[in-house]
Specification:
Strand content: 5-15%
Number of strands: 5
Number of helices: 5
Helix content: 10-25%
Largest sheet: 5 strands, parallel
Order of helices and strands: EHEHHEEHEH
Strand order of the largest sheet: 1-5-4-2-3
Shape: globular
Radius of gyration: 59 Å
Length: 219
């Protein structure tokens, strides 16, 4: 009895994919060719081997040592500063403004205006007369000496007085003396005292020959 069923043919396996085969001449198995790996770097260990690991530090004898710093030369101690000798206070500068006896007060008023225009504070200025009172002082004294001298003590404005009141007025940076009377010995001494009390400048409004004759050229 004939079997009518037919079996499909077995697929043909390519020769390249058949795997190892036995060579009749030698009877040894030939391996399928493998791709050749590229060169391995020194850091890449072989498969299955631990590799070289990190580089060891150089022994102490081979390590580079920085050159020792050269010690700085000792500096000589600074010489002590010379002590300043105490200086005696210098006398105030003296300026003479030529003026007659009748025009001395007006010259003093003009000097006040110039000082204020130059930046001097009103409280820096004191005006003295050797003869009659300045008109401003005469007016203020009409309200009493207490209020008059209170303005002097406040020290915030120009003040007018007589050289005879040397025991009442205080020192100021600039003192102006109007020689509106005879410049006798008493008046001359008052001008000298005014120069000692002037902090920076003494202005004398009067006849230069009379002033120099009474006070001396060195005043």
């Amino acid at each position: 009895m004939t079997d009518n069923h037919s079996f499909p043919e077995e697929p043909q396996i390519p020769e390249s994919a058949q795997g190892p085969r036995v060579t009749p001449a030698t009877g040894r198995t030939a391996s399928t060719p493998r791709p050749v790996p590229g060169p391995r770097s020194a850091a890449t260990p072989r498969p299955g081997s631990p590799g070289r690991g990190p580089a060891r530090p150089a022994p102490p004898a081979q390590r580079a040592h920085p050159a020792p710093a050269t010690p700085a030369a000792p500096t000589a101690p600074a010489a002590p500063a010379a002590r300043k000798q105490p200086q005696e206070p210098s006398a105030a500068e003296l300026q003479l403004i030529p003026a007659s006896v009748g025009g001395a007060v007006e010259a003093a008023d003009e000097a006040v205006d110039l000082l204020l225009d130059s930046g001097r504070l009103p409280g820096d200025i004191l005006v003295l007369t050797t003869g009659e009172q300045h008109p401003w002082a005469a007016h203020e004294l009409s309200f009493g000496e207490a209020s008059y001298w209170a303005q002097h003590d406040a020290g915030d404005d120009v003040f007018f007085a007589r050289t005879a009141n040397a025991d009442r007025y205080a020192s100021r940076a600039v003192i102006i003396v109007a020689v509106n009377g005879d410049l006798d010995d008493t008046a001359a001494r008052s001008v000298s005292e005014a120069r000692e009390r002037a902090g920076a400048l003494l202005i004398v409004c009067g006849d230069p020959r009379t002033v120099n004759s009474a006070l001396g050229a060195g005043v």
